[in-house]
């Protein structure tokens, strides 16, 4: 139980650092990779193994000013972008593109204030198992304002996009796109996106010529760090490298599978922090490392992690905060979520079903929108703190999982105010609020109703500039003080007499329906109506 506390505290610290998307005061210690091609980035000129980079397109590495972007000045037959997605030719021309055209390992260091790393091994690479590139991030700072700052166009694709054979378990070890975050380095990737551009030869117009009725995609790249093929991201031997991704749209994207095995990845994004986008096929797998995501919501929406297929968490630490003002989730997967290990903290405004796995998880649905930056702690029956976290976003739904979260009675605190809630109707331990569910249950209990969840698949958005409704709620007058570790809850914090399940007059939940005891069982645990505990004095009884 001590380890879960340390892990949650680590997640809190990591989340707090996301606002700067960096590690101020920390220095990068570049590593030496004798078997890799060394690419040193600079606004004054890029070098490859100590020599000026070639401009010859037949070279393994060459530079040019030919970035793919959404160009302004076109009509509706060009693509689906708006004026906000478009860029001028002058802005695009200012970017230096470092092209990598041959298989191999490339160690990147240095700074490009306007540039892109583009990996393209040719049109036949997708089916060539030898078409493999590893990018070692060895202390880089790359900024691109018109497109992804790092993009894999064409390398070997180890997976299949066949929905009929799709499975939750994929092996991406042979993938052609690989990223290694070198130990001791701090790496910054700041990128944009490319809105959908039509293949001009495929455009079909309506009879009156006023709209596009059919077209094929020529380009569309939503993430600041993007791969069209399956990709692996690893840390070094010690796992001390850091990758900070700042994105005005999505953060880390692949078009098929993504596997994260190590390193620390901090993502600040205007939309989804991580997205894998092949419907009912893509698998986002997290085996290790630390993944910390804050969706700032400039686009009006965004999940922390969004897989159009499956999300599998086997290890590591995941802290994912969704957009504060929309009905999005900290973790979201259209085909299902599996948690087999690791530590998970996901905050958002809706719950996406967890199909199961080998690890206990808890879903807290709050009675009102909570304000980001507040600290929540979970204490066991002995008064020991077993979890502490501070979500960065406003939220109503909190998902927590850890290998050390065991069956038993707990109390939940917001600062010094004790919280109460009601268990959804499901199997659970005796007494208190039984919230446990069998491991194979993919759906929450029928009566579980997370606040702010969108109706009929819609994702509600808060009007621009409007404060969240009932943000954070109001604590009751003179809330009970949180006991110190090892102490029990004060006598005055006993729940009022009454039922422990949902109910109340007219079917509305009342203070009498809530309990301050959260009883967890193995599997999924669901608690709703979470709010500050009303004592007898504050409730007027």
Automatic annotation (TrEMBL):
Keyword Transport: no
Compositional bias of kind Gly residues: 428-439, 498-507
Region feature (Disordered): 421-517
A Pfam family this chain is assigned to: Cthe_2159
Keyword Signal tagged: yes
Segment forming the signal sequence: 1-25
Alphabetic keyword roster: Signal
Positions with biased composition (Basic and acidic residues): 456-465
InterPro entries tied to this protein: Cthe_2159
Ranges of compositional bias, category Low complexity: 441-455, 486-497
Protein name: Carbohydrate-binding domain-containing protein
Organism listed in the record: Candidatus Oscillibacter excrementigallinarum
């Amino acid at each position: 139980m001590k380890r879960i506390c340390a892990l949650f505290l680590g997640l809190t610290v990591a989340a707090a650092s996301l606002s700067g998307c960096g590690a101020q005061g920390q220095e990068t210690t570049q590593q030496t990779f004798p078997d890799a091609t060394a690419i040193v980035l600079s606004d004054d000129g890029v070098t490859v193994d100590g020599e000026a980079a070639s401009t010859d397109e037949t070279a393994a590495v060459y530079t040019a000013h030919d970035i793919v972007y959404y160009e302004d000045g076109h009509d509706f037959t060009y693509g689906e972008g708006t004026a906000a997605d478009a860029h001028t030719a002058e802005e695009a021309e200012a970017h230096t593109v470092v092209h990598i055209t041959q298989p191999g390992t490339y160690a990147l260091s240095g700074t490009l204030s306007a540039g892109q790393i583009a990996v393209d091994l040719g049109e036949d690479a997708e089916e060539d198992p030898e078409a493999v590139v590893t990018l070692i991030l060895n202390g880089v700072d790359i900024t691109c304002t018109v497109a992804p700052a790092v993009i894999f166009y064409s390398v070997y694709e180890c997976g299949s996009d066949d929905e009929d054979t799709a499975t939750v378990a994929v092996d991406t070890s042979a993938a052609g796109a690989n990223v290694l975050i070198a130990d001791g380095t701090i790496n910054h990737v700041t990128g944009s996106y490319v809105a959908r551009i039509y293949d001009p030869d495929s455009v079909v117009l309506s009879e009156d010529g006023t709209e596009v009725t059919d077209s094929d995609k020529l380009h569309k790249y939503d993430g600041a760090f993007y791969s069209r093929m399956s990709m692996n991201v690893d840390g070094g031997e010690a796992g001390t490298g850091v990758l900070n991704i700042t994105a005005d749209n999505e953060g880390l994207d692949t078009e098929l599978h993504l596997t994260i095995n190590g390193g620390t990845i901090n993502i600040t994004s205007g939309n989804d922090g991580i997205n894998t986008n092949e419907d009912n096929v893509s698998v986002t797998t997290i085996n290790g490392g630390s993944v910390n995501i804050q969706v700032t919501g400039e686009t009006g929406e965004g999940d922390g992690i969004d897989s159009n297929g499956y999300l599998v968490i086997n290890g590591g630490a995941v802290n994912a905060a969704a957009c504060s003002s929309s009905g999005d989730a900290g973790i979201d997967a259209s085909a299902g979520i599996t948690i087999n290990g690791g530590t998970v903290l996901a905050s958002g405004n809706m719950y996406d079903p967890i199909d199961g796995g080998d690890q206990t998880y808890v879903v807290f649905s709050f009675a009102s929108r909570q304000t980001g930056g507040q600290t929540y702690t979970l204490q066991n029956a002995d008064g020991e703190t077993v979890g502490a976290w501070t979500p960065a976003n406003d939220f109503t739904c909190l998902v927590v999982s850890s290998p050390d979260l065991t069956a038993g009675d707990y109390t939940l605190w917001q600062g010094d105010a004790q919280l109460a809630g009601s268990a959804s109707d499901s199997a659970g331990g005796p007494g208190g609020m039984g919230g446990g569910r069998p491991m194979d249950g993919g759906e929450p209990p029928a009566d579980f109703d997370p606040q702010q969840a969108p109706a009929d698949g819609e994702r509600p958005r808060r009007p621009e500039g409007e404060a969240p409704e009932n943000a954070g709620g109001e604590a009751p007058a003179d809330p009970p003080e949180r006991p110190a570790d090892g102490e029990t809850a004060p006598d005055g914090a006993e729940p009022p007499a009454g039922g422990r399940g949902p109910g109340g007059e007219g079917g509305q939940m009342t203070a009498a329906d809530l309990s301050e005891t959260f009883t967890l069982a193995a599997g999924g645990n669901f608690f709703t109506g979470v709010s500050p505990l009303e004592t007898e004095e504050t409730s007027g009884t």
